Amino acid sequence: MKNRNIFLAVCVFAVTVVFIATGCWKDDSPYPNEKAAFTSFVVRGAVSTRISPNELKVYVELADSVDIENVLLTNLAFNYDNTTISPVLKEGAYLNMSSDLSFTLKTYKEYVWTVVTTQTIDRYFNIDKQYGAASFDASNHIATIQVANGQALNSITVKSAKLGNYGSTITPDPKTVTNFSSPVTFAVSFKGKTQTWTVKVSQSSEEIFTGSVNAYAKHADVEGDFTVGDGTPSFQYKKKSDSDWTTLPSSDVKVSAGHMSATISGLEPNTEYQYIAICGSQAGATKTFTTEAATQLENSSFDTWYKEGTTWYPNIDLTAAHYIWDSGNKGENSLGEKNPTCPEETIVVKGKAAKLQSLSIVSVFAAGNLFTGHYVSTSGLSAKLSFGIPFTSRPQGLHGYYNYLPGKVDKTDTPYESYKGTTDTCQIYALLTDWTEPFIANSATKTFIDYYNDPNIIARCQILDGSNTGGYKEFNMTFNYLSTTRIPKYILIVATSSHRGDYFTGSTQSILYVDEFELVYK
What we know:
Blueprint: H1 10-22, E1 38-43, E2 46-52, E3 57-62, E4 71-78, E5 84-86, E6 94-95, E7 101-106, E8 110-119, E9 124-127, E10 130-137, E11 142-147, E12 158-162, E13 169-171, E14 184-190, E15 193-203, E16 208-215, E17 220-226, E18 233-239, E19 246-247, E20 253-256, E21 259-264, E22 272-279, E23 282-283, E24 287-290, E25 306-308, E26 311-313, E27 325-326, H2 329-332, E28 341-344, E29 353-357, E30 359-361, E31 364-366, E32 369-379, E33 382-387, E34 389-390, E35 397-405, E36 426-433, E37 439-442, E38 457-465, E39 473-478, E40 480-481, E41 490-496, E42 511-520
Parallel strand pairs: 3-8, 11-15
Antiparallel strand pairs: 1-4, 2-3, 4-6, 5-7, 7-8, 9-12, 10-11, 13-14, 14-15, 16-17, 17-21, 18-19, 18-22, 20-21, 22-23, 22-24, 25-26, 27-32, 28-29, 29-42, 30-31, 32-33, 32-41, 33-37, 34-41, 35-39, 35-42, 36-38, 36-41, 38-40
């Protein structure tokens, strides 16, 4: 289920209704300005679907168990009732989604949309005394595996194997095959289709194998394999520019059936290092990695503010290099000088802070909010926000301070009428994602972030608090990483004084102060 509670630029959407009611917004065009768009594109077996009106694209990720050449379309909808689609497409159709699909949507104008499909097949081929993970050439259907130098190729024990989709069969059964002195072919069958895969096994020239590394800003996870019996397995590392090596204590190394792993801590960001797997007098090949940058977001202290007309922005200016933070202020200021988010100079940790105040503007509830990204536009009964800014580091958490004065909920709307009279709640959260572009939240197409199910979310953390903090409260949020191998492309940080504000529900007395945000690297 989508969690629309995290869509926090509430005041923008509230104000769009006010624009129409007060006649503050005028459209002289004889036709609607919104592009003809999909509002629903559902196929059976989709892990996720994201509709991007800004790109005119639908992104679909299919489960491992789906035949990508024969996918059932179960639901289809558009933003205008008179929309036509070419080529004709109807619910119940079966689609070959092995390549991009193109459709032309037409209402008053024509727009060419592209359906982009991805599917990740989880493949593995695990054998005894294996060095590292198998490598797979999916285009040529070849799996390549290395084993220890002393392992006879005619006496291989296969522990587990999967070369195709979930539910596929392999013939012959890999566990019955022991002789890999020459390449072995297997028939991989799935839903009436068969591929021929070739598995190649070779001996490694190394008795100890320096494996993969996953390097963060200040630490790196390293792996290795070994067959030598003398000595204690460990790792050595150094800056590439240094001459002396550091050996990890054996207590820091995890060893299991010839495999070893460890975390190297205390590294410097954006620095090139070398590492080696060792065991006694034996050493594997020397490998190199570079740590990530320990990137901080400009003006996370909220000391610098810029005013354009009557609108406050928590940035030094609005040039591309410095436009980091935004809020719904631009929408409110279409009605006059209304800034739910503004600089605070008295109630601070140090310097200045950001004051987020929930308000009633022409009887419509608007929550104070702050986010990394840009306010995009207001059009008719809809508004757009660009959530997230480019970011490629992997911090461990977010540190900062907040001061919350919650009021009693005095503004409600469906489905939260029962919350009237209860205490309001603030929210602070952060996401690391590998979106291909900033997330465009759009009320017209009902496009909102799916906090719990969006497959492009790599890590997340949040605070929900309905208490009066009695002054500033320090917080240390730890990112929950859903993947430790994917690298972020965007970061989204959001704070709001009323976390149900997107449902026009909250207290006009609630105030949230935030100050001194900092990304934490360990």
